[in-house]
Structures are given as structure tokens and as C-alpha cells.
């Protein structure tokens, strides 16, 4: 990972460790991910450089509890880290494991 992507990934890891400590960090397809007690990936991080994109993505898999009616977001772009981004990512991790 390049330095900018690594910095975002490290902040995601801090949030995951504090907001959803029941998730276990693992590598999934060569990228950081967080799995539940059953070993199923709940959240995965994709760095921008790996796919030549202009942003990293935080992707919530099927075990995440983000359901909101018949339509809800499962992928979120992260272009830069900020306090507002950290707050939203924290909320998403907490909801995913609720």
C-alpha cells in the first residue's frame, strides 16, 4: 500500500478495534478485513492503489447489520481521513455488529 492508503487503513483498524472489538482482524484477498466469531468477513478495506482508483473503499459484507428497509449502502468511499469520516466509520462499525 502506498503511504496515503496505509494511513487510512491504519485509522480504520483503530476504529474497528475500539468500535467493534468482537471482530477479528484478518487478511482477505490480500487486504485488511474484520471477521465475526463464525469467521465470516463483516467489513473489508480496499486500498485505492491496488485497483487504480482515486479512493479507498470500506465494504460491508452480508453478515453486517446495516439493513435499512429494502435499500442500504454496503460500500463507502474514503478519499481522505478526517474527524467526520472517523465518526461515520465508527457508527458504521457499531451498526454492523449490533
Write up what this structure looks like:
By secondary structure, the protein is an alpha+beta fold. The protein has one domain (3-97): Aspartate Aminotransferase, domain 1, CATH 3.90.1150. It has three helices and five strands. It has helices at 3-19, 48-51, 83-97; strands at 24-28, 31-35, 41-46, 56-60, 75-78. It has a five-stranded antiparallel β-sheet. The longest helix has 17 residues, at 3-19. The N and C termini lie far apart (31 Å). The model has no long low-confidence stretch (mean pLDDT 96).
Cα distance, first to last residue? 31 Å
The biggest sheet amounts to: 5 strands, antiparallel
Q: Give the strand order of the largest sheet, numbering strands 1, 2, ... along the chain.
A: 1-2-3-4-5
**Outline:** globular
Q: Count of helical segments?
A: 3
Computed structural class: alpha+beta
* Low-confidence segments: none
Q: Tell me, rounded to a whole number, the average pLDDT.
A: 96
Approximate helicity band: 25-40%
Supply the CATH architecture. Alpha-Beta Complex
CATH topology: Aspartate Aminotransferase, domain 1
What is the ordering of alpha helices and beta strands? HEEEHEEH
What would CATH call the class?
Alpha Beta
Question: How many structural domains in the coordinates?
Answer: 1
- DSSP strand count: 5
Cα-atom Rg, whole angstroms?
13 Å
